[in-house]
Amino acid sequence: MIRPFLWLFVLPFASVASVGAWADDPQVAWPPGWSVEALPSGASATQRQRATKSDPAGNALMVMELTTTAVEPDHQVNLQGVLLEMRKSIQKDFFQGGYQSVCNKIHASMLGGVTALETTCTITQNGRHVLSQTLVAALNGGKAYVLSYAGQAQVYVESQNEIQSVRNSLKL
Questions:
Q1: CA dihedral in degrees (97, 34, 106, 44; nearest 10)?
Q2: Rounded to an integer, what distance in angstroms lies between the CA atom of residue 105 and that of residue 41?
Q3: Which of 36, 34, 90, 106 has its CA nearest to residue 66?
Q4: What pTM, to 2 d.p., does this model score?
Q5: Which of 52, 118, 131, 169 is most exposed, with the fewest beta carbons within 10 Å of its own?
Q6: In this structure, is residue 144 part of a structural domain?
Q7: Domain containing 130: what range?
């Protein structure tokens, strides 16, 4: 079961700006066959898109979500701190659902050609690896971006080419 953690993507940046229109939306090439939707954000400075890979019965196997948040020009975003808080929230939520999670150290990465920070969590239940979730965060051009992707353990591994394609296709 993949549960989207919608509140995780909005809260870390929700109070940093108030912007009405989005002149430069991020561009992303979602994988063929994935269901794509724009999501309500709850904050005027935040924009969200989600793509879901489902099995023939319609059950979500893999979910990718891109959140874009405008940042006030004078606001300094502690990207590592934001990512740490998001990671803690994910771990807490999984723990409350009866799962255990271990996340790797936050490390440097790339997202759409922009320097980013990344962490991946392995989620287990009764010692069995059931899910993986990765968070990638970047700042560029007065906006903060978070790409989160999660999937069933085997599907996550099998989807690495699609994931990398999305990450490379992003124009932030």
A1: -90
A2: 28
A3: 36
A4: 0.84
A5: 169
A6: yes
A7: 6-18+25-169
Domain count, the chain: 1
| Ordered per-residue pLDDT tens for the chain, 172 residues | 444 443 333 334 433 333 333 445 678 899 999 999 988 766 667 889 999 999 999 999 999 999 999 998 888 899 999 999 999 999 999 999 999 999 999 999 999 999 999 999 999 999 999 999 999 999 998 999 999 999 999 999 999 999 999 999 999 8
Check which CATH number belongs to the domain holding 70 and give it: 3.40.1000.10
